[in-house]
Structure formats: structure tokens, C-alpha cells
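SAMPLE LOG
Freezer: B-3
Tube label: C17
Construct: single chain, 117 aa
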Amino acid sequence: MTELAASLGCVYEECCDDDSSENGVPYYAWWVRVPQAEHVRRGENDIPVVVDRLRQYLDTQLPDLLEWEIVPDGEFTVDRAAGSALREAYDDLIAPFERALMPLRVDGADERCCHVG
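STRUCTURE (predicted):
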């Protein structure tokens, strides 16, 4: 997915288990950042063409029982932009708190986080 997304001009971030559906079937989410210019190029499913190409690829790779979708998430995009802007403006205030609090997390995020150092 990383290579496919890059070939389409996108940035693949991760796939996560986004909990299970009501019938107990796992539900996954693929997170991909798409260039803003690509949002205006929409295909027949009214999603960006590059996202539709990722959907087509995933459709050939995933088992039939798996419930999934691939659509642009406007709320996530806005939240990420706001978070990036806050970090850029206030990193000198945020970073010390992260360094102090990150080791207290029980999910191991301190070993994966790129902001602590």
C-alpha cells in the first residue's frame, strides 16, 4: 500500500483495526493523505480518482467477509491540519509535556512516537 499510494502521489499512513461491525466482522480503516488538488478529480463513485484506485486494489486483495470502506475523511483532515498548525506554533510548549508524559502511557506509544526525543 505504501508503494501504491506513493505511485499515485499520496502518502500511506497506516491501516488500523477500526473495531468490529455489529455482526462481529472485523472492520478496518486505511489512512492515506491525498494531495488537495486530487480532491477535485472525482470518479464515478464521487471519490477522488486516486482513492478509487486504492479501493480497486484493496478489493482484489481482501477476503469477501471483511467489511471495509475507503473514503476521504474530512473531519480527520481538518483535525490533522489543526494539530499540525498548533504543533508548529507551540512546539516549545508541547514538547516538554510530551517528553514528561509519554513514558507513562501503557500502550507503548513512547517507543513509536516521533515527537519525543
